[in-house]
């Protein structure tokens, strides 16, 4: 079973990881102790031969060999090659876990879309989830040694209840040389279509949602198959393994302690046991062991995925969801905070100190500015408050001539007068509009701007020259006369942009 130590490191404390160093199951000691003893034994054997077996001439030759190996062993890029390899393997390991086919989303869609409290409705829902579980069992049986030992043949799958004997005949009669883990997913689709025809699934949208969740489930099963098929390139694994092994073979000779009397540089001390070389072996070889364990998490190592546990959990949970929990609802009642204006859950005595901590509003809420730094500045360089430039800005927007331009200018002028009227009415309490609500029309400018003769835009004068001649027409047709337009303008055409059209219609 997977070694879990999350609760042991929930809080950071002094020497927090030190208590994990004494664990044996799933530890690096359990993985590496044989290799470490083998390396130490070979090192001590060479050291004993140098000290007690070789003669003086042979010792001088061995010392030259030690210096040579120690000089060139550093050319092997162990940390570079091994670091990238372990990073790749760990990333691949976590992605494989994310591809584990979990039925939680699918069972929620089944229980919400396949209806019927009778026996046939129950049969539909249970069979659909059994097909999903069967597909997961077939793919896990193909990639996990633990699951294959549990279900070595299809007969074991039938006896376990994931497949009926009739379904087994259909499964085996389907001639295909490839892995047939996808067959139960096809059965699922056919059964869902039959439920739609019978009205168990009430509309096509629900059927579409159900099949989309099935495709996500099937895609995860397919990804597990591809991860098992496409491994990390063998050449990369070979390069890393050769680099680590050759480096420590060179260290067996190059890290030997030589006779201090010979005066070799760096050999002034004779400890007989290479402490730091053993630590280096522990780290590099342990790194390689980590990659060896994680490269296939579907084995039977301590930290491999618990595939049999997942099969049991997924099958039981899915059947509970679509069978016993179908249409099972608690009585609707008001919650505890129904009449509360501010709902807040209580705290225990161990967490009451959190009530006194301020809530986070944003990292800029603690910034303070001087009062003069908070004043808006005019971009045109003129003096005075910023609000005085609004009228000038609107005046610059007014076109000089043109029918459409004049109408747009009229509306912008209306907006300016309307805003001025509102501003004056909010600041001057003695306005004639407020003093005489039933009297004659006021003359303060708060009335209808379109009706004020002093503010109304002058109407264009009719053409004073001679009327243009009528265009040539057939003899039988009467000539028409161009009539000049008088009076107020009508409403703007619907295709003309009107940013304040609603205000103008209300005032008119």
Order of helices and strands: HHHHHHHHHHHHHHHHH
Helix content range of the residues, please?
40-55%
Mean pLDDT, to the nearest integer, reads: 82
Give a count of the beta strands, DSSP E runs of length 2 or more. 0
Largest sheet: none
Q: Tally the helices: what do you get?
A: 17
Give the termini distance in whole angstroms.
81 Å
Describe this structure in words.
By secondary structure, this protein is mainly alpha-helical. It has helices spanning 28-52, 56-72, 78-98, 104-113, 119-143, 145-150, 154-159, 165-173, 183-197, 204-229, 234-254, 275-294, 307-324, 389-397, 403-427, 432-435, 501-507. α3 (78-98) runs antiparallel to α11 (234-254) and α4 packs antiparallel against α10 (204-229). The longest helix has 26 residues, at 204-229. The chain is extended, with a radius of gyration of 43 Å.
Short description:
The protein has 508 residues and is mostly helical. Helix content is 52%, strand content 0%.
Q: Which keywords apply here?
A:
single chain; 508 residues; mainly alpha; 17 helices; 52% helix; extended; disordered C terminus
Topology (elements, then pairings):
Blueprint: H1 28-52, H2 56-72, H3 78-98, H4 104-113, H5 119-143, H6 145-150, H7 154-159, H8 165-173, H9 183-197, H10 204-229, H11 234-254, H12 275-294, H13 307-324, H14 389-397, H15 403-427, H16 432-435, H17 501-507
């Amino acid at each position: 079973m997977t070694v879990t130590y999350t609760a042991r490191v929930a809080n950071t404390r002094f020497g927090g990881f030190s208590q994990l160093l004494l664990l044996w199951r799933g530890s690096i000691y359990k993985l590496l102790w044989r290799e470490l003893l083998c390396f130490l034994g070979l090192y001590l054997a060479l050291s004993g031969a140098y000290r007690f077996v070789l003669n003086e001439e042979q010792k001088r030759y061995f010392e030259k060999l030690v210096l040579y190996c120690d000089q060139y062993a550093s050319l092997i890029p162990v940390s570079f090659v091994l670091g990238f390899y372990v990073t790749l393997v760990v990333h691949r390991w976590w992605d494989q876990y994310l591809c584990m086919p979990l039925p939680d989303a699918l069972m929620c869609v089944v229980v919400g879309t396949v209806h019927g409290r009778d026996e046939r409705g129950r049969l539909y829902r249970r069979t659909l989830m059994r097909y999903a579980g069967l597909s997961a069992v077939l793919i896990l049986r193909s990639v996990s040694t633990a699951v294959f030992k549990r279900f070595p043949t299809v007969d074991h799958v039938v006896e376990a209840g994931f497949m009926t004997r009739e379904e087994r005949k259909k499964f085996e009669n389907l001639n295909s040389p490839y892995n047939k883990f996808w067959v139960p997913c096809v059965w699922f689709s056919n059964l869902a279509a039959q439920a739609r025809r019978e009205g168990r699934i009430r509309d096509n949208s629900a059927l579409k949602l159900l099949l989309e969740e099935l495709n996500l489930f099937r895609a995860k099963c397919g990804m597990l198959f591809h991860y098992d098929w496409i491994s990390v390139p063998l050449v990369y694994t070979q390069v890393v393994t050769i680099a680590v092994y050759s480096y420590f073979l060179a260290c067996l000779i190059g890290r030997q302690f030589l006779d201090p009397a010979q005066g070799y540089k760096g050999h002034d001390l004779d400890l007989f046991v290479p402490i730091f070389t053993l630590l280096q072996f522990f780290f590099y070889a342990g790194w390689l062991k980590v990659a060896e364990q994680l490269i296939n998490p579907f084995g039977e190592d301590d930290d491999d995925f618990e595939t049999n546990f997942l099969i049991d959990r997924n099958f039981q949970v899915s059947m509970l969801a679509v069978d016993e929990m179908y249409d099972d609802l608690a009585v609707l009642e008001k919650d505890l905070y129904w009449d509360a204006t501010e709902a807040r859950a209580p705290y225990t005595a161990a967490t009451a100190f959190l009530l006194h901590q301020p809530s986070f509003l944003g990292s800029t809420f603690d910034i303070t500015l001087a009062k003069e730094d908070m004043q808006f500045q005019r971009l045109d360089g003129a003096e005075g408050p910023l609000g005085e430039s609004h009228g000038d800005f609107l005046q610059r927007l007014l076109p000089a001539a043109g029918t459409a331009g004049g109408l747009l200018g009229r509306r912008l002028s209306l907006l300016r007068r309307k805003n001025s009227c509102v501003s004056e009415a909010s600041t001057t309490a003695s306005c004639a509009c407020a003093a005489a609500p039933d009297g004659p029309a006021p003359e303060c400018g708060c009335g209808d701007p379109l009706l004020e003769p002093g503010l109304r835009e002058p109407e264009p004068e009719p053409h004073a020259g001679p009327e243009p001649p009528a265009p040539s027409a057939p003899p039988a047709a009467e000539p028409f006369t161009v009539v000049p337009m008088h009076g107020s303008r009508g409403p703007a055409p619907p295709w003309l942009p009107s940013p304040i059209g609603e205000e103008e219609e209300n005032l008119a």
